[in-house]
Design goal:
single chain; 340 residues; alpha/beta; three-stranded mixed β-sheet; binds nicotinamide-adenine-dinucleotide
Length: 340
């Protein structure tokens, strides 16, 4: 059986990915996470007793932590989700983004090289391609679109991608890179657009929308991102980049209106706030390479996916309220600290 190290497995996509792997494949899964504010072990309570699952508290920037986790668990595959991921936070404090997203990736790559890891997959983002013009809807990001970064977050992710590419060319490392559009679904930290708006709407508060609300994003249900990563991991060509997206572009304001409508609240809850500096106008991704070459296709349509997502946040109110109160931070101390 393969031993796969999933970094950032206590975050939004990472925790969905850990569960997706355990449900669909026979892997031993080692979740390697520093448990920053975004890491929440309560995302994983339903699988934490699975004998194929191990949690390792560690920092991808620490050579010692990384090498210990890789050797102790005889890891042969790494999937790197660990990152600082919130653009607004990268504007308030870019340094942490460079440390985790760039240095952390280099530490992982170096350890993987030293220990002869069989496959390394870097989870990246469509944000590395910059912004598309609004008046040219036919333009999409392809894998050949030049990297043009406009936020400290996207600059740090692009830098990591370039390092992955350098390790492939220089050291012939068996690497793969995926670049996905915006994800939505269960367990997303309630600072991000969709869960934040749901939480505000449930509480009858004002829903803050940046600028004119006309920024366009492509949205993909998180399980579809997980299935795409697995296709790339199992069938992708070493050294290649694969775009992943839902062919599903929406104005931010329309997403907010859909949430209000499904929750039976009026549009008078919307309030426009000062735009984010350097806010990219439009992202849209061409996923034809992964679809044609690896046979991947998303399973969820947006209307079904968003309804399922809203239902999940309504039924799991306790999950996001515990985050808002900071109570989730005690979970590690209570359940793990005496076992490590
Ligand atoms: N959310 C999206 O829409 C989206 C889209 C495309 C790509 N991505 C990429 O996917 C990955 C996961 O995104 P997410 O939204 O799940 O992020 P998230 O912020 O929810 O989770 C990040 C996880 O990484 C962990 N982490 C942070 N620094 C660490 C460190 N130094 N060492 C070990 N663990 C650390 C955190 O504790 C957390 O569990 C990121 O690399 C992000 O760039 C996200």
């Amino acid at each position: 059986m393969k031993n796969i190290l999933v970094t950032g497995g206590a975050g939004f996509i990472g925790s969905n990915f850990v569960k997706y792997l355990l449900q669909n494949f026979d892997y031993n899964v080692i979740n390697f996470d520093k448990l920053t504010y975004a890491g929440n072990l309560e995302n994983l309570t339903d699988i934490e007793k699975d004998p194929r699952y191990t949690f390792f508290k560690g920092d991808i920037c620490s050579e010692q932590d990384v090498e210990k986790a890789l050797t102790e668990n005889k890891v042969d595959t790494i999937v790197n989700f660990a990152a600082e991921s919130h653009v607004d936070r990268s504007i308030l404090g870019p340094k942490e983004f460079i440390v985790t997203n760039v240095i952390g990736t280099q530490v992982l790559l170096e350890a993987a090289r030293k220990l002869g890891i069989e496959k390394y997959l870097q989870v990246s983002t469509d944000e590395v391609y910059g912004s598309l013009p609004e008046d040219k809807p036919e333009l999409l990001f392809t894998e050949k679109t030049p990297i043009t970064t406009n936020s400290p977050y996207s600059a740090s992710k692009a830098s990591a991608d370039l390092l992955v590419n350098a390790y492939y060319h220089t050291f012939k490392m068996p690497v793969l890179t995926t670049r996905c559009s915006n994800n939505y679904g269960p367990y997303q930290f309630p600072e991000k657009l969709i869960p934040l708006m749901i939480a505000k709407a449930v509480d009858g508060q004002k829903l803050p929308v940046y600028g004119d609300g006309k920024n366009v994003r492509d949205w993909l249900y998180v399980e579809d991102h997980c299935s795409a990563i697995c296709e790339v991991l199992h069938k992708g060509k070493i050294g290649e980049v694969y775009n992943i997206g839902g062919n599903n572009e929406w104005y931010n304001i329309d997403i907010v209106k859909i949430i209000l409508k499904i929750l039976g609240k009026g549009e008078d809850h919307i309030t426009y706030v000062k735009d984010r500096p350097g806010h990219d106008r439009r992202y849209a991704i061409d996923s034809s390479k992964i679809m044609k070459e690896l046979g991947w296709a998303p399973k969820y349509q947006f209307d079904g996916g968003i309804e399922k997502t809203i239902k999940w946040y309504v039924e799991n109110e306790n999950w996001w309220r515990r985050i808002m109160k900071g109570e989730y931070l005690n979970y590690f101390e209570k359940n793990y600290s005496n076992k490590m």
